[in-house]
Amino acid sequence: MIAIDLQGKLIAFEGIDTSGKSTQARLLVKRLSGSGLDVVSTVEPGGTSIGEAARAIVLSRPGVHSAMLPFSELLLFMISRAQNTHEVILPALQAGKTVVVSRYRMSSEAYQGYGRGIDLDLVRDLNHHATQGLRPHVTFLIDISAETAVNRKTTEHDRIEIETLEFHRRVRQGFLELSALDPNAVVIDGDRDLGEIAEDVARYLQV
């Protein structure tokens, strides 16, 4: 039984790479669907045909698109976010569905703002336009240390994952500072069993 009305609500999962946010998003979708909710799951970058094209560029293998500027990277994420918001997220919310997204506004502020050093006000302004002002009703930050994130990487890396440890430390610090300023953000210790983390998410949502 669902205690909180989640119809027409957007739930976002955030965190540095390998934090387990995408896994937790999938687990929540399964739980909510099993409770009878009409749930839409999406990811960023991606979610639409244009978004997937942007994803292929921005998360390409190391050495591919090596000339990409940080600002160009930011714009590719915004292209994906604008399309995903317009084509997938807003229509689902307007239809009363629950939307679960892996990465949304906070990721750009953490990665391109804190990580790449792009002016945060600029990132926020672009976010506002790309999302048509939409903000998640709840954001779960699955928090792990940068060192843990690096040690967890066992597969082929993309151009962002191979960044330095210091870069990932800046991004993690960004997520923590941004979450502290967001009354709808919930920080969860991600250095635990997947089931324990999923239960924390479920308890917060009362599902």
**Estimated share of beta-strand residues:** 5-15%
Strand order of the largest sheet: 2-3-1-4-5
Oligomer: single chain
CATH topology: Rossmann fold
In CATH terms, what is the architecture? 3-Layer(aba) Sandwich
What is the C-level CATH assignment?
Alpha Beta
What is the averaged pLDDT score? 94
Q: How would you name the CATH homologous superfamily? A: P-loop containing nucleotide triphosphate hydrolases
What is the distance, rounded to the nearest whole angstrom, between the alpha carbons of the first and last residues? 6 Å
Overall 3D shape: globular
User: How many structural domains can be distinguished in the coordinates?
Assistant: 1
Helix/strand/pairing category: alpha/beta
Number of beta strands: 5
Order of helices and strands: EHEHHEHHEHHEH
The low-confidence parts are none
The helical percent reads 40-55%
Alpha plus pi helix count: 8
Integer-rounded radius of gyration? 16 Å
